[in-house]
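hiii, so i know i said id send this last week but things got crazy w the move. better late than never?? heres the sequnce for the chain we talked about at the cafe, plus the structure i predicted for it. fair warning i was half asleep when i ran it
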Amino acid sequence: MPLPLDLVLVRHGESEGNVASRRTLAGDNSCFTPEFLARHSSQWRLTDRGVRQAEAAGAWIRENLWTDFDRYYVSEYLRAKETAAHLGLPEAVWFSDFYLRERDRGDWDVITYEERINRYPESVREQEAEPFFWTPPNGESLAQLCLRIDRVLHTLHRECGQMRVIVVCHGEVMKAFRVRLERMTQKDYHALHASRDPQDRYRNGQVVHYTRRNPRDPGAEPAPYLNWVRTVCPWDPDPSADAWREIGRPRFTNEELLEEVRRVPRLVEG
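okay and structure toks below
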């Protein structure tokens, strides 16, 4: 079976963790109270702003896509479940899936930015050098997260081939979907990671729509793959693309592979 006809991904609205992270980057560690530090990140709730972002995402989906889907999936984490409920999709019956949980940050999960820099300086340097394969201390690399997403995609292949599917999840999970659906290379991921283009960010409440239906030729036979994608941030549409992009999955000749290899000098001779 092919993948769904339409796959809609939604990032959760702003959470308590998002606020704490943003503030600690600015030098304000006031959110990191004993109660906050004792709570696992899976238990973070949405802020009032996060609820409004979820409601805006739901309004955009109902107005521009559909009011109902054939299958509804949501991450096990509370901030995703809260977002899913606030989308306001009237016929929704959600399947909760732990494979859709956010990337495991291990020892980096609930600590201040200052602690991260002071306690794990080598890990910070490794992240800057190799963001795709880098693993947080006792955590999960983006590459490992992609293996979880492959399990989700296998389920969608098996059960949802002619369906419209919605998934409410997390920013890093949406990156992993993009890597696997678009067959991004390590080099392409590096460019995405370093990009300052707002259209390359997955903001709270962001909606990403993949489809097998050619948006420029609605009467055409659906493609075997999810070949088109668009993205929108409903609560702040200015930086949103909201325009279809055709996915080009990379292929390489022998010479193209060697051309990339030769850019890295040998350091050891046998």
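btw The mean pLDDT is 95. thought thatd interest u
miss u guys!!
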